[in-house]
Amino acid sequence: MREYLDKQKLLMALNNEYHDMSAMPASYYAGFKYAIKLIEILNVSEEAAPVRHGRWKLCYEDDRHQIEGDECTACGFQHYGTVINHYRYCPACGAKMDLGDESDDQ
After folding, report:
1. What residue ranges do the domains of the chain occupy?
2. Global pTM?
3. Neighbours of 24 (CB within 10 A)
4. Is the dihedral of CA 95, 97, 101, 106 positive or negative?
């Protein structure tokens, strides 16, 4: 199933939030106005790319298995040293990490 953002609902939500920001610093206003402007000029196509799905699998930086990491099954992006497997999306390809754990394959 494809997932889309409704442009009009997003603009309405941002505009409502913008008008409710009376206690926020002035710099926040500029950021919200810029985000609204970008979304307004965004050309949304009905042929949007489908959401990719994947999972984090264990990988190692070297053959001696000293530094453990996580690899995206959708694009092969690897990350070492700090835990990334709690992220619900891959930072490299945007794949939604919802295909289950590596232990589910066995």
Report:
1. 7-41, 53-101
2. 0.49
3. 13
4. negative
